[in-house]
Write a structure and sequence with these properties.
Layout (H helix, E strand, L loop, with lengths): L8 H10 L7 H21 L9 E5 L5 E3 H14 L5 E6 L6 E2 L9 E9 L10 E9 L10 H4 L8 E7 L3 E6 L5 E6 L4 E6 L10 E3 L10 H11 L10 E2 L5 H11 L2 E4 L12 H14 L3 E3 L19 E4 L1 H13 L11
Parallel strand pairs: 3-5, 11-12, 11-13
Antiparallel strand pairs: 1-2, 3-4, 5-6, 6-7, 7-8, 8-9, 9-10, 13-15, 14-15
Helix pairs in contact: 1-2, 2-3, 5-8
Bound molecules: 2,5-anhydro-1,6-di-O-phosphono-D-glucitol and manganese (II) ion (2 copies).
Length: about 350
């Protein structure tokens, strides 16, 4: 009989821990709690049409965007799954303006969690893939006390782990704790994440580009030239590329991680800092992509080296295969003097 490798997420995390004798097991428990939240959010996303949970809450969030019921459900689920484990000292979420304290009745731990509870939520009502993104740091303030904003505002390079869950044709959780990037697919029949993608490596060069081309008019001239260059025919560099844009960053980047390619959400003449948020979208996705051998920058600087100033700050992002991200950086560098982001033309 062929051997079946029954590697659950919990077993994998424990086996990884054994390889690192310095580990205390706290991060493993934290990841386990996150996977529990993911299972519940996945269930709710899958029955969204049935559960009368579609549509808006009627409120808007800190970014002035309409909040959907599932955004709030996912936010509350993450908080409720993570507040009592004793691993965290502070949390922050896209859906909450301020940092989120651990309730006084629970123990505080040494880790910091930042998350986007539902990414791509404008796609919910159309059954398109959406996801959850998380970023984990070690606290920098003294142990034993509540965490502070300072613990949250660390450079991405200091993340100890990061990951995401895509609720797509199946639900997959992808994480890295700095030793490779691993994917676990949820078996809905018995509710376990099983190892499906071990040690993911992003191809050095891809054939896919992902960007909202509706914003073309407002782009940096170097970016316009780059996109036109991708569309030209050249056998040696495998052009033209294919365009794929879901509109859920987490799903777009997950696909490009597996197939190779580049995802871009640039600055433009209307939005000088782009759209996506550094702390709970760009940092964790960049940590994963770099750990898989790829590259992530704001066009000039490595995303993980950006020094954060505020919790909800935005950054332009170019992320994916090493070759593809380097190419767009080169195109933009050549045209640098002719672009002033934020200036109407
Ligand atoms: P969120 O749903 O968490 O607010 O994020 C939406 C983001 C991201 O997921 C996606 O890639 C991007 O918005 C799409 O923006 P455009 O509609 O401007 O292309
Ligand atoms: Mn998002
Ligand atoms: Mn969101």
């Amino acid at each position: 009989m062929p051997q079946i490798r029954f590697m659950t997420l919990s077993r994998f995390i424990i086996e990884q821990e054994k390889l690192h004798p310095e580990a205390t097991g706290e991060l493993s428990k934290l990841l386990h709690d996150l996977s529990l939240a993911a299972k519940v959010i996945s269930l709710e996303v899958n029955k969204a049409g049935l559960a009368d949970i579609l549509g808006f809450t009627g409120d808007s969030n800190v970014h002035g965007e309409d909040v959907r019921k599932l955004d709030m459900f996912a936010h509350n689920m993450m908080f409720n799954a993570m507040d009592h484990g004793g691993h965290l000292c502070i949390m922050a979420s896209e859906e909450e303006e301020d940092i989120i304290h651990i309730p006084a009745k629970f123990k505080v731990g040494k880790y910091v969690l930042l998350f986007d509870p539902l990414d791509g939520s404008s796609n919910i009502d159309a059954n398109v893939s959406i996801g959850t993104i998380f970023s984990i740091f070690k606290r920098i303030t003294p142990d034993g006390k509540p965490g502070t904003l300072k613990d949250c505002l660390q450079k991405g390079v200091r993340q100890v782990a990061a990951g995401y869950i895509v609720y797509g044709s199946s639900t997959i959780m992808v994480y890295s704790a700095g030793h490779g990037v691993h994917g676990f697919t949820l078996d809905p029949s018995f509710g376990e994440f099983l190892l499906s993608n071990e040690s993911i490596r992003i191809p050095q060069k891809g054939k896919i580009y992902s960007i909202n081309e509706g914003n073309y008019l407002y782009w940096h001239p170097g970016l316009k030239k780059y996109i036109k260059w991708l569309q030209e025919e050249d056998n040696d560099s495998e052009r033209p590329y294919t365009s794929r844009y879901i509109g859920s960053m987490v799903a777009d980047i997950h696909r490009n991680l597996l197939y190779g390619g580049i995802y871009m959400y640039p600055a433009d003449s209307r939005n000088p800092n782009g759209k996506l948020r550094l702390m709970y979208e760009c940092n964790p996705m960049s940590f994963i992509v770099e750990a898989a051998g790829g590259r992530a920058s704001n066009g000039k600087q490595r995303i993980l080296e950006i020094k954060p100033g505020t919790l909800h700050q935005r950054t332009p992002i170019f992320i994916g295969s090493e070759y593809d991200v380097r190419m767009v950086e080169e195109f933009m560098a050549k045209e640098e003097k002719t672009f002033s982001p934020g200036k109407k033309r």
